[in-house]
């Protein structure tokens, strides 16, 4: 399935040291009339779908991914993004906006990916199950199945039909991260799967906050 994306990279006068959640909060508050930017409507009703605007910090730069309507919103507000007031104040010195159509679908070819930001694969429920597993093979299979579930959830949120069984091969390492003021065990590393995932798409929990960002290894 072809999907329109907009990737907006914002270079600033100094390296951004705060997390992507801070950028999300600032932009969401600055442009409150665009629900896709903060992923909820009034009365704290959240948009229960795959986030169409995703914020990331990559190598100290702000990178914002817009998918379909989310891309249209990014193009509308990009000219007004000239400063970030986070814990520090950052001035935007360069804006790089690229728009392209990408494939998101199961693939006949096995693709190789890495997480460029930690993947939050475990929630409260499956964290307990994960800790009850003893052998590393069991834990690895458990994580692989969760990742398949994340891919299926993304597909469903984007209206993509998956008509084949997915299998993941992976090598992950634990990296502790803070998400919504709670310490989580995140994972970094690489995986292979028969699925076309565009660069900078996110998987798992906290996607709109910058977690689980995927890039292909070519």
From TrEMBL:
<feature type="domain" description="Cas6b N-terminal">
    <location>
        <begin position="1"/>
        <end position="102"/>
    </location>
</feature>
<dbReference type="Pfam" id="PF17955">
    <property type="entry name" value="Cas6b_N"/>
</dbReference>
<protein>
    <recommendedName>
        <fullName>CRISPR associated protein Cas6</fullName>
    </recommendedName>
</protein>
<dbReference type="InterPro" id="IPR020209">
    <property type="entry name" value="Cas6b_C"/>
</dbReference>
<feature type="domain" description="Cas6b C-terminal">
    <location>
        <begin position="108"/>
        <end position="216"/>
    </location>
</feature>
<dbReference type="InterPro" id="IPR041528">
    <property type="entry name" value="Cas6b_N"/>
</dbReference>
<dbReference type="Pfam" id="PF17262">
    <property type="entry name" value="Cas6b_C"/>
</dbReference>
